[in-house]
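Section 4.2 – Deliverable D4.2 (structural model, holo form)

The reporting period included a commitment to supply a predicted holo structure for the target in complex with alpha-L-rhamnopyranose. Inputs used:
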Amino acid sequence: MILGRHGRVAAITAVAVAAAITLAGCSSGGSGGSTGGSHNYKIAFVPKSLGNNYFKASDEGGSAAVKGFGGTYSEVAPATASPTGQVPFVQTLTQQRVGAIAIAADDPQAACSALNAAMKAGVKVVTFDSDTNCRDAFVNQATPQGIAKTLVDLTGKALNGKGKVAIESGGPNATNLNLWIKYIKQDLAKSYPGITVVDTVYGNDDAQQSLDAATGLLQKYPDLNGIIAPDTVAVANAARYLSTSQYKGKVYLTGLGLPSEMRTYIKDGTVKQFALWDPTNLGYLAAYTAKALIDGTITGKKGDTFTAGKLGKFTVGADHEVVLGPPTVFDSSNIDKYSF
Ligand code: RAM
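Output (structure tokens):
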């Protein structure tokens, strides 16, 4: 009974998803030469959710790369981030026999049976931004320890090594965010033992939920000294809340943010510093990693090398991982140089 009911729901969802994918394929376009000779260069990007400017930027980079090497780019994703929301999209892309799926996973495991089926059917699977337990290669933006250290040192120095901080994240299941939070907590305890993490809250990559999460934190901990938000939606909306509150300039907020979304809060003094890599380059690198897998230039094993267009040469590291590079710290001195 229960299985039957779920089966029907899944079938309805799959039809809706197939329609969405067809539309997305048409609207996002491609160069038309999708097969690249004997190679299937139909490359589909599946971000955590639609509507997040971070993924708009990464998918723009992916689109530019795919079109540049003569493939067909498409982008499909659930409207809101959730552990299982990406599954029907992966299933439909597999039925449509794309050459590769580049996915930023909402959950380390939830999409794995669909992704394993995709790989079995010959589709190359590249994770980018947020990893899964099942893929041919993972394109990581930077090392998790390095990302954590950047945010911990900004906070530790700003608070002179003491005080109460909270973490505001995005999706509670996201592989990338949870790993960064683990290292943030470890590094704070080691490098700044006078700083206590009092809470971790989640905004689910949704603007309103992220705003509410920040509001709730200050209601619960009016003596809070800092917020670390390793998620672009969380940090922008925590800043939005602080900017018009009595806590502006009193609570130190930092995190991983888009310069385009944080500029106002740097200029009005709500935020002093935050960090990020270039998400456009991350998507660009994910597309070229997919191409290298399709071409057979790499299999994903350590030591494999390939050239990613304008970004140059990359070497695959341990656990089939390719790393883009360290994050940049933004403040009032350099914020105007960045458009993403
Ligand atoms: C959000 C997402 C994404 C993360 C950035 C920093 O947009 O959670 O996965 O890498 O923030």
